[in-house]
From TrEMBL:
Keywords: Membrane, Transmembrane, Transmembrane helix. It is a multi-pass membrane protein. This is FUSC family protein. Residues 411-532 form the Integral membrane bound transporter domain. It comes from Solitalea agri. It is found in: Membrane. One of its GO terms (cellular component) is membrane. The keyword Transmembrane applies. The chain crosses the membrane at residues 72-91, 97-116, 123-142, 148-169, 397-416, 468-486, 493-512, 518-539. Its main location: membrane. The keyword Transit peptide does not apply. InterPro entries: Memb_transporter_dom.
């Protein structure tokens, strides 16, 4: 797939690789590791090659964000911390009590480093790995210094390859990536809508959730550039805010269009217009993708191409309108397509907003110094401050770190007291298997143990028959790249290749013994069992006792979201920025709820029947979020003269029902919420009939105004019908749910 993308459109491949450099990162990590190993071998320091090589590999792989200056600073601190862990492991290796005491500290700090983000997790794990490897003798100060220096050199080598070179070539790259990435994600969302309309709805929901998560992450990475407190003479904060808001609105419109396309596909009479709709999706996808290219390259060619593609999108909408008018359909048949057209036109507006404000950013660039004006408002000090606030007994991160430290230390105790060859693999397995909650540990333990067992077996055979170091270097490089490739595709296979790489590296300078592989496999199994048992026995975090809370929070988020949409409709404000924040809260609540459901499935003591009913309720709540988003997306196209109080009353009724439902669930009450939507729609239908009969003289101008009113009212009625349908479904199944806290035995 990657090769196909590279051949057919190398420019797009490069653009996406700049934004999400997984392949580049894998290649840099591979070069960092193998390069260090080769140099160590050539200079006669192969005994420390594994320490510097691992440091070079994982420090270059760590996902460090922020400006290049901040990345260098974080990686330097990480390299120093890892070198200190290696030093402590070496001097403590000859004494069991010293090793246990030092590991208790190193493993605890490693667990707390998870709070710093992905790079904290990677660097913390690396520190423990090198500490455990360093326990192997000789355990002298001289050897400890030698290993620590190797780690620092390996870390420096990684910093040069991963950051310094790019910093010198393109110093503004972090900023360019941050501002362009949301639009690239939005383009993908718009392009996938026609494809998803033909597959299973739940599968489509999952794919949409993945894209929404990517968009949320991309926007969060841009937020540091938007924070207040900027007293600079020249600032682009306002321009950036406009561009990122446009991307968020474009993305929410793309998600809403998925549901509208599903409705269009249900009308057989509208089949003739589906190809034109798909052409419009493709045109909007290309235009949004070009916004990302333009924000990254800032070239005149991309700017002109963006204008052309926006114009092409507008032309496809004109063609769409003409085809719809020529079909001579009833308003009932046309209303679904009219909603889609309204969202298409809103999308064009967001593209033009991005173009306008991106041009203004370019106008200011000549007045800006990147070093002083384009740095995000974020600091390492603030990250550590947030992490230090987790040092409380109530913190899940603190409890996880303490559990990790205690269990890893028990692994070391077993290693020393039973004199197990390569016994540090028990603690090593605990480090990579143990997660903050029982379900995640149980889910990952099998893949990790299975992949590790297979990798240990394959690596043991490899080390037995391959005697040439340079052949092993090639194997290490290939396995490292395959680990990165499979990491997001099949975790067990990824762990398989990672284990081969680790075993090959660790055994490069050690005499091979066939039974060592067997010991490694046994140690891996023991470590996996200990890790799963620890999450069950030590301060477990049971999600099923908070099932009602997750549901209540998600429903209340939808209630607030719908309430704000109703306010925007009544006040004729269009698409206010407050909707973006409430939409994000609703979607985050849904994602948190869905993740909690996945974890609860594997928890002992969870009631499966109640969980199934709760999942059904959550499914309709997630659909409700999408329908509210669709409602918000059509608001800019509604006439300012629209004023039908019955629609506002219906929205109030809907929000009141959601509030009652959320409160009942939160308070662990027997839920019995009923709706009365039918009377509202009868009144709306009567209003439509009166409007149709309000022009007996057939005045052309008045008839045009009436048609406009009918279109607006039908658009609102149609969307409210979908919203109330989801709420009615939630009310109907709520009578079967008694979401009380489940006592654990």
């Amino acid at each position: 797939m990657l090769l196909k993308t590279y051949i057919t459109n190398p420019r797009t491949f490069i653009h996406r690789e700049q934004q999400n450099p997984d392949i580049t990162r894998a290649l840099v990590s591979m070069v960092s590791l193998v390069g260090f190993l080769v140099v160590a071998q050539l200079t006669g320091h192969s005994d420390i090659g594994v320490y510097g090589g691992l440091a070079a590999e994982l420090i270059s792989w760590a996902r460090v964000t922020g400006s290049f200056a901040q990345r260098v600073w974080v990686m330097i601190l990480g390299a120093i911390a890892v070198a200190a862990a290696s030093f402590l492991g070496t001097i403590a290796g000859g004494n069991m009590f010293a090793a246990m005491a030092f590991l208790l500290v190193v493993a605890f700090l490693s667990g707390m480093a998870r709070g710093l983000g992905d790079h904290g997790l990677t660097l913390g794990t690396l520190a423990v790995i090198l500490f455990l490897l360093s326990l192997f003798g000789p355990n002298t100060i001289a050897v400890a210094e030698k290993r620590a220096i190797a780690v620092l050199i390996g870390g420096s080598w990684a910093i040069v390859l991963r950051v310094i070179i790019l910093w010198l070539i393109k110093p503004q790259l972090p900023y360019d990536i941050a501002i362009s990435k949301p639009w690239t994600v939005c383009a993908d969302m718009m392009g996938m809508v026609p494809q998803l309309s033909g597959i299973d709805e739940k599968e489509a929901e999952n794919q949409l959730n993945e894209q929404e998560t990517k968009l949320r992450i991309a926007i969060n990475e841009l937020l540091p550039y938007l924070r207040k407190g900027d007293n600079k003479i020249v600032s682009v904060r306002r321009e950036l805010l406009k561009v990122v808001r446009a991307s968020s609105r474009f993305g929410s419109t793309a998600m809403a269009l998925f549901y509208e396309m599903n409705e269009v596909s249900k009308h057989e009479r509208l089949g003739f217009i589906v190809p034109t709709l798909k052409n419009t999706f493709q045109a909007l996808e290309l235009a949004a993708s070009t916004v990302g290219h333009y924000l990254m390259s800032r070239s005149i060619e991309d700017e002109e191409l963006l204008k052309i593609r926006i114009q092409r999108s507008e032309n496809t909408i004109v063609i769409l309108k003409k085809r719809l008018e020529a079909a001579n359909l009833s308003l009932y048949d046309k209303v679904e397509v009219l909603k889609v057209i309204s969202m298409f036109e809103s999308s064009i507006g967001y593209l033009n907003t991005a173009l306008t404000w991106a041009e203004r950013i370019d106008e200011k660039r000549s007045q800006l110094s990147f070093i002083t004006h384009f740095q995000p408002v974020i600091s390492i000090r603030s990250q550590w401050k947030n992490t230090l606030s987790e040092f409380t007994a109530e913190s899940e991160l603190f409890r996880h770190s303490l559990r990790l430290a205690l269990i890893a230390t028990i692994g070391i105790f077993l290693y020393y007291t039973l004199e197990i060859p390569r016994g540090y693999w028990i603690s090593l397995t605990i480090m990579v298997v143990l997660q903050p909650d029982f379900s995640s540990t149980r889910l990952k333990a099998w893949d990790r143990v299975l992949g590790t067992l297979g990798g240990v077996f394959a690596a043991s055979i490899l080390m037995h028959y391959v005697q040439f170091h340079y052949v092993i270097f090639i194997v290490i490089a290939v396995c490292l790249f395959l680990f990165f490739y499979f990491q997001q595709r099949n975790y067990a296979i990824a762990v398989f290749f990672l284990t081969i790489e680790l075993v090959a590296m660790i055994d490069l300078t050690l005499p091979y013994e066939w039974h060592i592989g067997l010991y490694r496999m046994m140690n891996t199994v023991v470590g996996g069992i200990i890790a799963v048992g620890a999450t069950y026995l030590l301060w477990p975090k049971w999600e099923h006792v908070k099932l009602g809370h997750y549901l209540s929070m998600a429903i209340m988020a939808n209630k607030n979201y719908l309430d704000q949409v109703g306010y925007e409709l009544k006040e004729k404000t269009g698409f206010h920025s407050r909707l973006i924040g409430l939409r994000r809260k609703a979607e985050v609540s849904n994602l948190n709820m869905a993740d909690a459901f996945k974890r609860i499935k594997y928890e002992p003591g969870a009631n499966k029947e109640r969980l199934k009913l709760a999942e059904d309720l959550g499914f309709y709540n997630a659909k409700l979020t999408r329908e509210i988003t669709s409602f918000g997306a059509i608001l800019p196209g509604i006439s300012k003269e629209f004023n039908y109080p019955i629609t506002y009353t219906l929205i109030d009724e809907s929000t009141n029902l959601l509030n009652d439902l959320a409160e009942a669930i939160e308070n662990d009450q027997l839920i019995c919420v009923r709706h009365s939507f039918t009377r509202f729609f009868i009144e709306i239908e009567n209003k439509v009939l009166k409007i149709r009969e309000s022009n007996p003289s057939n005045d052309p101008q008045k008839q045009k105004d009436i048609e406009r009113q009918l279109i607006d009212l039908d658009l609102i009625r149609s969307q409210l019908d979908k919203i109330t349908t989801e709420i009615a479904a939630m009310c109907n199944i709520s009578g079967n749910i008694e979401l009380q806290a489940i006592e654990t035995n």
